[in-house]
Amino acid sequence: MRTTHPTPPPAPGRRAFLAGGLAALGLGLAGCGPADTVLSGRRRLRQWNLFTGGDGARMVQMHDAYRREHPDIDFEPATFLWGNPFYTKFAMGAAGGRAFDIATLHVSRIRGMGAGTLIDPVPTDLLAEHGITRDTVLANVWDKCVVDGELYAIPLDTHLVVTYYNREVCERAGVLEPDGTLVTTSGEEEFLDVLAAVKEATGQYGIAMDTTQPWRQFWSLYRQLGGEMSFDGDLRLDDDKALRSLDFLRRVSEEGLAPQASDAPGTPANFQNGICGLMWAGNWEIATFADAGMDFGMRPFPDIYGAELGQGDSHCFVLPHRRVPDDAAVAAAVGYAAWMLKHSITWAGGGHTPAYLPVTRGDDYAALEPQSEYRHAAADVQFDPEAWFSGSAAPLQNEASAVLSGVHNGSVTPEAALERFKAAARKLIDTPEPV
Amino acid sequence: MSSPTATARAAGAPAAAPARRSGPSARAARPGRRRSSLAGLWFVLPFAALFAVFLVWPVLAGLWASFTDRSLASPGAEFVGLANWREMLGDSAVWQSLWTTLVFTAISTPPLVAIALAMALLTNRAAAGLGWFLRLSYFAPFLLPVAVVALIWEWMYQPGFGMVNGLLTAAGLAEVAWLTDENTVLAAIAVTTVWWTVGFNFLLYLAALQGIPAYVYEAAALDGAGAWQRFLRITLPLLRRTTGLIVLLQIVASLKLFDQAYIMTNGSGGPGYAARPAIGYIFEAGFTGLRIGYASAISYLLFAVIAVVSLVQFRLFSRKGETA
């Protein structure tokens, strides 16, 4: 090294260049969206949703149609992974107050996601201008969207746990009506007889259900018994009814009528493989079997304790809380939601029952098989009990799944499982509310 | 989601290197060399800035959050003193999940070290034509993303039609509900983890084995040492430092169990929470429950456990090194 130090390059110049470049890049990126909108005079509408797979494809299809009909709106949907990943982003985005103009949500999560703090009420007069009122939407679902007298969500659909049946297996088992639908049963014994006949036909099991998430089955049975559950200050539930529901689940597994262990991916596979002829599962599994070309039908959750009630929920649209009111953005968002409701016949392809009554009463929907077989169940969908920690993918369902699943495989008695569930629920009641 | 082993190494390695290099040069700075040491600072700056922004700052912010009631869903947070810490000490779910993590570490670390060594010994002696293929196949699972690994094993563990139970029934044994039985779910996840991550330890051992000169073995053979004695008296002692490193990295990686356990139990934590590790509970408290303050407190507890375990393990191995 002869020259001890090479002449330093004009460092400030290079740094300035780099810094300037970065700044320019930042400005460019930040300016992208809005500048575009401002220049073209189109209204920007950002929608967040949690639909992937079949539901996601149908939503994209609807959005394409929406864009074609609304050239004046710069529509930007964003899809996030279902469950926690979505809800985490929803909460943070809504808390920031600038992330999206409208988002999908489960109706059961409205309280937990901050109705009144993170979520703004829906202007019902604006909604009525589009023809969406309590009279044109499933009333039971509409009422769930109301918190303290204010409407906080626009319901798109209802989805619930239903009975799937493999027509070929059920025919061999002799449990089909002449018209090819599953026989209607009433009471524990009648249903168990059907399961026994189907088990005989498959040689393995009668029915499959997700044993790692027993909450859906449990809540359906418990509600059929008329059971109530509330968390106001202290946990209130009916021990006898809860035990009876759990004991029925235990009995079905113990008598070999259902697999003792069948997880989320395993359950539809068990049904598709013909290991069992029936399945209790959410109506959204429909596409899997339709794509596989299976000959199957669907019925509401059976009447075990007096009525065909099934646990379920509803997808809805909500408006985030805005720090700076923007009536035009709200109007665009409400207009979009109303359009989606009116075109929800496409959405019904995924098994969800549209909440907008003119759609489900139409001929197009009646022609949808097997969706129309269980459409009346939507009017009696059993929502989860109300608390900030209840609802789809919320802590209560997680706790219930972890403590109740032992009932299915016989590792825990219904009594012990119920005690554990009560302890878990009390702990949630004692947890400070985060919203 | 990267593998736990990969993140452990990525975080550890670059953190050590620049610190070591900047130290002596700063001390040796003389007036005449000031300019060059200043130039050195500029080279360190990008790393130092990232280190400060993405490690130091979050660590401090997390500590502060653990003393507040910060929620993901509301902007402000109030100072609540030690309330989160007190709640944590009385929360049985914290201790259960921490215990699950420790059990997982205890059952996954020995096979992850022993099997890696066995595989390295096997491929180290393999014929030249076949060696690359064996090394590749032993290492290949490590390249898979966690979601793929979890999916493969979820199907293999299925009762009724899964491969593992298929083999069991073919051998005349009863089926096991691997992922839905409280007693087997953690072991099943440990087996998956071993299959998935053993390749990295294998690679470290293989490199160390190839660094042992052949003449050492030759001399031992001339002295009449058999194959087993050569392994015990030469190979193992010469691999001691590598083993120490692998055990340390593996323990830290196993203590950070989360992604595969989360995916393979479909986010439920398994029956009776038998497979919900400490990070799983931190995730639930912070992201399902939205309570960032409380989740921060638990994550500091886990941090303390990892630090203590690493220190103890480090001391154990370094002392052995001195006596050898």
From TrEMBL, chain A:
Gene3D superfamilies (alphabetical): Periplasmic binding protein-like II
Any Pfam family matching the protein: SBP_bac_1
PROSITE patterns, alphabetized: PROKAR_LIPOPROTEIN, TAT
Transmembrane stretches, start-end: none
Keywords noted in UniProt: Sugar transport, Transport
Superkingdom, natural source: Bacteria
Transport as UniProt keyword: yes
SUPFAM superfamilies per UniProt: Periplasmic binding protein-like II
PANTHER family recorded: ARABINOSE-BINDING PROTEIN-RELATED, BLR3389 PROTEIN
Record's protein name: Multiple sugar transport system substrate-binding protein
Automatic annotation (TrEMBL), chain B:
Biased composition annotated in UniProt, kind: Low complexity: 1-29
Listed CDD domains: TM_PBP2 (cd06261)
One GO cellular component, as annotated: plasma membrane
InterPro entries to which the protein is assigned, alphabetical: ABC_transporter_permease, MetI-like, MetI-like_sf
Entry's transmembrane regions: 40-65, 98-121, 133-153, 159-178, 185-208, 292-312
Region span, Disordered: 1-31
Topology in the lipid bilayer: Multi-pass membrane protein
UniProt-listed PROSITE patterns: ABC_TM1
Protein location: Cell membrane
UniProt keyword terms in alphabetical order: Cell membrane, Membrane, Sugar transport, Transmembrane, Transmembrane helix, Transport
Biological processes per GO annotation: transmembrane transport
Location of the ABC transmembrane type-1 domain: 98-313
UniProt keyword Coiled coil present: no
Family: Belongs to the binding-protein-dependent transport system permease family.
The protein's name: Multiple sugar transport system permease protein
